[in-house]
Amino acid sequence: MRGGLPRRPRRGKDRFPGDQVYADPGRAELRLITCGGAFDTGTRHYVDNTVIYARLVGKG
């Protein structure tokens, strides 16, 4: 099985692409959501989310 990482946008938490992340792509895909961007010491959180989209591209 082979995979590919076609995109990995970083977005502010207030602009999280929920419609894209949780949509049914109609094929084998994986989405990894993690923290990114600058660390806000006041809130003790990262200001962005990084979303990594991976898809199955063939059998190896």
Q: What does this entry look like structurally?
A:
By secondary structure, the chain is mostly beta strands. The chain contains 1 helix and 4 strands. The protein has one helix at residues 18-21; strands spanning 2-7, 10-12, 29-40, 45-58. Strands 1, 2, 3 and 4 form a 4-stranded antiparallel beta sheet that branches. Strand 3 (29-40) and strand 4 form a beta hairpin. The protein is elongated, with a radius of gyration of 14 Å.
Quick description:
This protein has one helix and four strands.
Q: What is the N-to-C order of secondary-structure elements (H for helix, E for strand)? A: EEHEE
- Beta fraction: over 45%
Please give the share of residues in helix.
under 10%
The number of distinct β-strands equals: 4
Low-confidence stretches: none
Number of helices: 1
- What profile does the largest beta sheet have? 4 strands, antiparallel
> For the terminal residues, how far apart are their CA atoms?
5 Å
Using only C-alpha atoms, the radius of gyration works out to 14 Å
- Label the overall shape: elongated
Q: Structural class from helices and strands? A: mainly beta
The chain-level mean pLDDT equals 83
Quickly list its features.
60 residues, mainly beta, four-stranded antiparallel β-sheet, 1 helix, elongated
List the helices and strands and how they pair.
Blueprint: E1 2-7, E2 10-12, H1 18-21, E3 29-40, E4 45-58
Antiparallel strand pairs: 1-4, 2-4, 3-4
